[in-house]
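Listing S7. Sequence submitted for prediction.
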Amino acid sequence: MKYQPPYTITPAIVNLVAAISETIGRYTVLAEQRLTPRLRRDNRIRTIHASLAIENNTLTLEQVTAVIEGKQVLGHPREIQEVRNAFAAYEVMEGWRAGSERDLLSAHELLMQGLMDEIGCYRSGGVGIFQGKQLVHMAPPANRVPKLMTNLLEWLATTTEHPLIAGCVFHYEFEFIHPFADGNGRMGRLWQTLILREWNALLAYLPVETMVREHQESYYQALAAADERADATPFVEYMLNKLLAAISEAVDTHQKTDQVSDQVSDQVAKLIQAMSSGELGSNDLMQALGLMHRPTFRGNYLNPALAGGWIERTQPDSPRSPTQRYRLTLKGRQWLLRQTG
């Protein structure tokens, strides 16, 4: 008989799923226009910073950004390694399947490389969760972990439950089992993001972890309430609330950005029109605009167009590449179409 995690679909859960589904439509439309490669990277950095901060990593957002950009950072070597590992894991996440045990173990190996001995395998000993000196949760014995995880992953791979609910249920069950000697919290959050990504690829860049970090105590309270009831329902309701808050905040941010940046300067308008033929390098753009002074070109044309989301780099991770070219974004193409009819 297949395993069925204990939880109840409450009216609150139904309403939250409906609200998220409605909001996700607006988020998808706006994100397709505004979620540039740079913003995706920034959101991913925020996600990594928040998820590691929950686990007591003390690096600031600025330090996390610097580590990911390969800069020297004054910080504890372990915390720096945690950042590098997390970024590597999130970057390859799209190649994993949420229901695959092999992918789960590979993810743990990548996430915890250089931080512990038992990486990429289930724990061999007992583990408990403490708040201060108080034991708040004793995980199942190590010899039961492989079977428990097999059951949970089989359920995830075959369930017809809405992915929003399935992701929350898996997250709770995973934390209850605590299958690894360390890294269970960040693994549970990473895997819920993977489940959401399989439903909507843009959710891979939604920094839900920032909401959890801002309400960290209630996160643990929701886990404890689910433990007390032996039922994931309180945790599902909590996580759906945080998902809705994160998506709503992203929609508001995109809409405010659009309101500010929808006014196109004469210089940016000329640049957009010059790019109607396709991708161009900076020299070609300057020639098309009849400009000779590079600082003027960058300050009045190129940089405002990039900041407003009207154009984007073809090589976003190498902004100073000598082969760098620029192209119109969806937002830029839509503006151009409106001007030309």
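Caption to Listing S7: primary sequence and predicted structure tokens for the chain studied. The beta strands are 128-131, 134-138, 311-313, 326-328. The domain at 11-257 is CATH 1.10.3290.10 (Fic-like fold).
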